[in-house]
Design brief:
The structure holds 2 protein chains of 2 kinds. Chain A contains 13 helices and 10 strands. Chain A is of the alpha+beta class. Helices cover about 25% and strands about 35% of the residues of chain B. In chain B, helix 2 packs across helix 3. Classes of the chains: A alpha+beta, B alpha/beta. The complex binds protoporphyrin IX containing FE and zinc ion (ZN).
Chain lengths: ~325, ~140
């Protein structure tokens, strides 16, 4: 049951549609440290080392916000998890200690000669979240830097430098009733210091966290393999806890994405989740199912869930 | 002479501008507007309602957007004949390979291509980046 504890189950209704499901967060934290910290950081670092061009991108004008984010996250790690991290700053001199990984980072704030990586790239190697900087310019929000190891079928290299609305161009129905315009206005009004959180979900076949568009030919083919018999092992509910934070100094927006996976065999242990998941998959509009890559195996998945709900009824 | 309004997606801006020059030369009062991506039907409808009666609309867009604007135009009181489709230069486009990031020049948006760098079979999409000036090519398995 332990895998269910703390899993951010995303469904609040019986039918899913896109909405601005952001809520303010109190206390205003941009990141979370979980029991998977060590494993995920090992994977993150391996990916960054092997595929740096794919996992890290930055435009030169993002550098000040990168520094601000590095300070913010080191501070947050230390103040929320003092037994695992410490951070000291005296004048510009900074020392961050990661006791979980037995490492430290010493640097002078805003002095690039004291670090080997760009600030976002460096701090991103100490948190489980993917990190995106949206530059707030007069004509919109632009993706100006990102460290992204666990995307859900999109390419950081392609979207770097793009504007918020264009980034969402492929999402079905996103322009209906001015939805994406409203979301952009909402983000542009977020006040410094506040954190807003929303959940997005999808399904991954296998337990792979790194599913970038770049390797779709490797992981995408597993979608053909799902059957009513193996769905419990193969299917994973993938939830992204996304947080938005306006940087007080530079006024850009930090967007953090923490990705959680839950195997279907574990999910169905919780009866209310099983029912809710079933209802949502069953009623998911076809264009969203297509976009999320669920269409190929939706029938098999539903049959698996129905069998388990039937078992539950007979068991009682 | 009728007032002419040219609506163009960023990717067809060159074609839209050419049309504007030609129309101006022949003495029309003509304006050109770049469309947001994605297009918001309500906004378009509102904008069209504010145009003088008898305005002619010329569209430089892909099929889906064209349909959406036609609907908006009808709601705003335009007749079918008031909405024309611009001549899009069906020459070549740049396709961004989603597997290796190579930008393939000289592609068409209608046909799939093989990436010259990694050999992946790609399906060009309408996902356009003005940063790369290229369309995203999705892998075909
Ligand atoms: C500001 C930071 C944000 C960035 C950088 C971002 C980026 C993205 C990207 C890259 C995708 C995938 C698009 C593709 O398939 O090519 C996406 C999907 C999506 N985004 Fe955002 N997004 C942000 C914020 C938001 C917010 C605040 C909302 C809504 C309130 C939102 C709603 C969505 C939805 C509904 C999808 C489709 C997800 C799915 O069905 O799996 N995004 N976003
Ligand atoms: Zn390629």
């Amino acid at each position: 049951m332990s895998r269910l504890n703390g899993f951010p189950f995303p469904f609040t209704k019986d039918q899913y549609t896109y909405s601005n499901n952001s809520v303010p967060l109190d206390p205003a934290k941009t990141i979370t440290v979980t029991a998977d910290y060590k494993n995920e950081l090992e994977l993150i670092r391996k990916l960054l080392q092997k595929h740096h061009q794919r996992c890290f991108r930055s435009l030169p004008l993002s550098i000040e916000s990168q520094w601000e984010i590095m300070l913010l996250l080191f501070n947050e790690l230390a103040s929320c998890n003092p037994e695992s991290f410490t951070f000291q700053k005296m004048g510009g001199e900074c020392l961050f200690q990661n006791h979980l990984l037995a490492e430290e980072e010493a640097f002078v704030f805003r002095d690039v000669s004291t670090i080997d990586l760009e600030p976002l790239d460096l701090v991103g190697r100490h948190v489980q979240e993917d990190l995106i900087i949206m530059g707030d310019r007069h004509d919109g929000l632009f993706l100006e830097a990102g460290q992204l190891c666990f995307p859900s079928n999109w390419s950081l290299a392609f979207v770097q430098g793009m504007e918020f609305k264009s980034i969402h161009n492929q999402v079905p129905g996103i322009q209906n009733d001015g939805f994406i315009d409203k979301v952009e206005r909402f983000i542009s009004k977020i006040q410094p210091g506040a954190v807003w959180e929303r959940k997005n979900w999808s399904i991954t076949v296998t337990n792979k966290l790194d599913t970038p568009l770049e390797t779709y030919s490797v992981w995408g083919k597993h979608r053909q393999e799902v059957t009513c018999e193996n769905a419990g092992d193969l299917i994973h509910l993938r939830v992204e806890v996304q947080r938005l934070f306006r940087l007080p100094m530079n006024h850009d927006v930090l967007f953090t994405i923490h990705t959680y996976l839950l195997q279907l065999n574990d999910l169905i242990q919780q009866e209310s989740w099983l029912k809710s998941f079933y209802q949502n998959i069953k009623t998911l509009p076809e264009e969203i199912a297509e976009y999320k890559g669920i269409s190929t195996y939706r029938t098999e998945l539903l049959r698996f869930l129905e069998n388990h709900m039937e078992k539950g009824r007979r068991g009682r | 002479m009728r007032h002419i309004l040219i609506l163009t997606e960023v990717r067809f801006k060159k074609d839209g501008l050419k049309e504007k020059e030609l129309r101006k030369e022949s003495g029309s009062s003509v304006e050109l507007k770049l469309l947001d991506s994605p297009v918001d039907r309500k906004k378009i409808e509102q904008m069209l309602k504010d145009k003088p009666l008898g305005t002619m609309l010329i569209l430089y867009t892909g099929g889906a957007t064209r349909k959406l604007i036609r609907h908006a135009a009808n709601s705003a009181g335009f007749s079918h004949e008031d909405v024309r489709i611009g001549k899009i230069y069906t020459g070549t486009y740049r396709i961004f390979c989603s597997q290796c990031h190579r930008i393939n020049g000289k592609a068409s948006l209608e046909k799939s291509i093989i990436c010259i760098s990694c050999g992946q079979h790609l399906e060009p999409s309408d996902h356009y980046s003005s940063f790369h000036d290229a369309y995203l090519g999705y892998p075909i398995l």
